[in-house]
Amino acid sequence: MISSETCLMALSWCGTLPQRCKGDYTLTLRKGGNNKLIKIYHRDGKYGFSDPLTFSSVVDLIIHYRHESLAQYNTKLDVKLMYPISRFQQDQLVKEDNIDAVGKKLQEYHIQYQEKSKEYDRLYEEYTKMSQEIQMKRTAIEAFNETIKIFEEQCQTQERYSKDYIERFRREGNDKEIERITMNYEKLKSRLGEIHDSKVRLEQDLKTQAMDNRETDKKMNSLKPDLIQLRKIRDQYLVWLNHKGVRQKQINDWLGIKNENTDEGYFVTEEDENLPHYDEKSWFVGDLNRTQSEDLLIGKPDGAFLIRESSKKGCYACSVNVEGEVKHCVIYSTPRGFGFAEPYNLYSSLKDLVLHYHQTSLVQHNDSLNVRLAYPVYAQMPSGRR
Fold it and tell me: Do the strands 304-309 and 375-376 form a parallel or antiparallel pair, or are they unpaired?
């Protein structure tokens, strides 16, 4: 029998496995932003979450549930043991010791991150569309209420005056008019009933859709921790590769980024020393808002950019042209340095950050920003591209 400590070291990716009772373990699982504690039983040389215990070791159990959902054990735990955390290696997620191995792991985590991102985007689109439909239905119900009120008033008025007219026409022996008044009143009541029934159906649809939307919101919230964790792991691998001097083209290949110009700008030449990026006045615009920044960049080529003070206290913002649109991203200022996100807040100055991302695509921070900081807003643009 292996001890709890041995299991932690042998299976660094299975989280914490403290031994609660002799022979038993507890698996700590992160799901939906919360920690779930699951007891692993050990009896007669077998392990498992419940009877019958079928695994020969905790290692076998963990390996099995890396590929199979825990829903087999608990329907509320539709999740796999995908992302290991070790108390011995939390500060250093990169375990491989050669560039090719790290690149393959980067590729693996990036694919997982993209899949989760696509799922989140799909849910977000569904949530947004459903929220709009819910609001439209609420507005329609309000309109139904007003219409019902009008019809009820008409029915009351019709009923009040109909009695007098029917009595009068009865004395006159005018059955035709009596029939007409009665039919009009019945039609009015029938129409009121139809409107009321439509409102009830709409209210039921709204109730069902609101419940579905809450479920979608829960799914989105449950994905957020996974996205954050995958982003963190992926970024650790990117930092490791950058520190090893791996060319951006190679990193882009692992990330599946296709760019015909990926070979440009990755080697320091004499021309680089004359880059306008070295002059902060060519790209730093001070206290300028988003709209003013967009006005400055409109009509300029992809990669045209500026750096400005952010509305977020203590931060800066980068505005850059990407595929004909101006995108904005926050630059954080931390004791370690400037950067777009941890662990990339490494640059001692804004100029160092700008010079780095002149050569390196912003796509590693945001999949929609496959662009480099190529052209400072106040520098001369390439001929014919203004």
Answer: parallel
In the chain, which segments carry CATH 1.10.287.1490?
A: 99-243
**Amino acid residing at 293:** S
CA distance linking residue 247 with residue 191, whole number of Å: 73
CATH number for the segment(s) 99-243: 1.10.287.1490
Residue 64 C-alpha from the chain's centroid: 29
Peptide bond into 343 cis (omega under 30): yes
Q: What is the CATH number of domain 4-72?
A: 3.30.505.10
Amino acid at 322: V
Write the CA distances from 244 to 32, 107, 339, 345, 359, integer angstroms: 35, 17, 19, 18, 16
| Domain 260-376, classified CATH 3.40.50.1820, yes or no | no
Name the helix (H) or strand (E) containing 251. Answer: helix 248-255
Nearest to 321 by CA among 346, 298, 292, 289: 298
Region(s) of the chain under CATH 3.30.505.10:
4-72, 260-376
What is the Cα–Cα distance from 244 to 255, expressed in whole angstroms? 17
Q: Give the pTM.
A: 0.44
Instruction: Give CA–CA dist 360/273, Å, rounded.
Output: 17
pLDDT tens for each residue of the chain, 386 residues long: 333 322 332 233 333 444 444 456 777 776 544 456 688 888 888 888 888 889 988 888 888 888 888 887 777 777 788 766 544 443 356 776 788 888 898 899 889 988 888 888 888 888 888 989 999 999 999 999 998 888 888 888 777 777 777 677 777 777 787 778 778 888 888 888 888 999 999 999 999 999 999 999 888 888 878 887 887 788 788 877 877 778 878 888 888 876 544 443 333 333 455 688 888 999 999 988 989 999 999 888 999 999 999 988 889 999 999 988 999 999 988 876 788 876 566 677 898 889 888 877 887 777 778 888 999 999 877 654 44
The torsion region of residue 359 among left (phi > 0), alpha (psi -120 to 50) and beta comes to alpha
